[in-house]
Design brief:
single chain, about 400 residues, 2 domains, 10 helices, 6 strands, about 60% helix
Length: about 400
């Protein structure tokens, strides 16, 4: 007889040892409570106050405000996962310790490490869930919220605007003696980018030996059909090897340059609005354009897309280790206060190392992972203390 899906799930759950099922049951309730609490707090501080201001000052329709709130919900929900994991493990194990249930387990030979394995397993699941949520759900939902709000307020969508767009193209530059050397081929600059159009554009061309060409145009657009840039209402100035200068005015001019400038202009300003794959492509684009500072910053943010979910595992280890200490008498209020202190400490550490990575003081991978490694070492120390 074929088993139904619920029966199969129940059968698989029975394979989990009774001790682990009992401890997981103690953890699930506090975890759901903490996720709801931290999400509501984050939404209130991060979105709700701003939406109320927009409703009152710019007459933003209430239905649009609710839509934006729902679209922004995933980004704040995922922020609550690490904090909720810490609070849930601290409260659950603290209560079990207060009720002497962990003492009873110790008396029959159950070690502290064995007791916190369910918490670590749950924390690992939360880490995976956080990564998937952060990479699959949050970027499109944030972009949708941005588009909804911009259209409601009559503003240009952020992905369709930019200022001071710079794109240098490097390659083999021909010399007067016929040899070639690596150098700057073209330099593209636009003062503004709005809805597919560059304005006040300057293009310098050094690709021909001895010649320097400067193209000035009021506007420019990427011509997808021709795979070239289309410049409007401008002038071309050419400096020849002999030192003479020629100029020519034009109404429309096609120039062979890649679409990289428009891709740079459309890059999301916030790495949180990119998936890992999008961020890797953006980082390569910034590298190719010569924006090493921007590329380094994005390298740090890419690593943080992996270290942020790891905070769930780190907090699970710390919370369970603290909560399972012998003779622990942590109340719910004390547990909440302790969680806030540890969360602030961890993120202050993460912010400090992140800033060093962006400045170039530390390599991006070390800057992003140092807080995780330091916290794991601290969690290991607390576990040793709980094992005594």
């Amino acid at each position: 007889m074929m088993k139904t899906l619920p029966q199969r799930i129940q059968s698989q759950l029975r394979r989990i040892p009774l001790l682990d099922r009992w401890l997981l049951g103690e953890l699930i309730g506090p975890l759901l409570f903490a996720i709801a609490m931290f999400t509501v707090l984050a939404l209130t501080v991060g979105v709700l106050v701003e939406l109320v201001r927009l409703i009152s000052e710019f007459n933003l329709p209430v239905l649009i405000a609710i839509q934006v709130l729902l679209q922004r919900l995933p980004s704040f929900l995922v922020l609550s996962f690490p904090m909720a994991t810490l609070l849930a493990t601290l409260l659950a194990y603290g209560r079990l310790s207060t009720n002497s249930e962990l003492t009873a387990l110790r008396s029959v030979g159950v070690t502290a490490l064995r007791m916190i394995i369910p918490a670590l397993a749950l924390a690992l699941v939360m880490s995976i869930l956080t990564f998937l949520f952060n990479d699959v759900v949050v970027p499109p939902s944030n972009r949708s919220a941005e588009v909804t709000l911009s259209r409601a307020l009559g503003k240009t969508i952020a992905s369709e605007k930019g200022d001071n767009i710079i794109f240098p193209r490097f390659g083999r530059v021909e010399q007067l003696d016929g040899s070639t050397s690596k150098g700057l081929l073209q330099l593209f600059y636009a003062h503004k980018f709005r809805e597919g159009t560059m304005s006040r554009v300057t293009l310098l061309d050094f690709s021909r030996a001895g010649f320097t060409q400067m193209l000035l145009a009021e506007t420019a657009e990427w011509n997808q059909q021709e795979a070239k840039w289309e410049f409007f209402n401008g002038q071309i100035l050419t400096l020849t090897p002999s030192g003479s200068t020629t100029s020519a005015d034009f109404d429309r001019y096609l120039y062979p340059l890649s679409a990289a400038p428009i891709r740079i202009a459309k890059l999301p300003k916030d790495a949180r609005n990119m998936t890992v794959a999008e961020a890797l492509k953006a980082e390569q684009l910034l590298q190719d354009s010569g924006d090493l500072k921007g590329a380094r910053k994005l390298q740090v943010r890419i690593q943080e897309k992996f270290t942020f979910p790891m905070a769930c595992f780190v907090f699970g280890l710390i919370g369970a280790s603290l909560g399972s200490r012998p003779n622990n008498r942590t109340s719910r209020g004390q547990g909440f206060a302790l969680s806030i202190v540890m969360i602030l400490t961890y993120y202050l550490l993460a912010f400090s190392f992140s800033a060093m990575g962006v400045k170039g003081t530390l390599p991006p991978i070390l800057a992003a992972w140092s807080p995780v490694l330091i916290s794991l070492a601290g969690g290991g120390f607390l576990l040793r203390q709980a094992s005594r």
